[in-house]
Amino acid sequence: MQIRQYKDGSAEIIFTEQEKKVIMEKGIIKFTPEGLRHFGNNLVKIVSDFYNNMDEETKNKLTHSGDIETS
To answer: Is the whole-model pTM more than 0.70?
Structure first.
């Protein structure tokens, strides 16, 4: 998985063909503890970078969403 972030604050998550196959077959993305740590660290960096790069209107928008289920 590769995460590309752009100067306008947007980003893409790009999956390899093997990763797409696993997602299609399993229906989930499963992380080892170490893998989740690395993924989480990358997400924190992305959040910091996109916040610094996005325009003021986008920064001031509120997010209204339901609960995120964790197990």
So the answer is: no
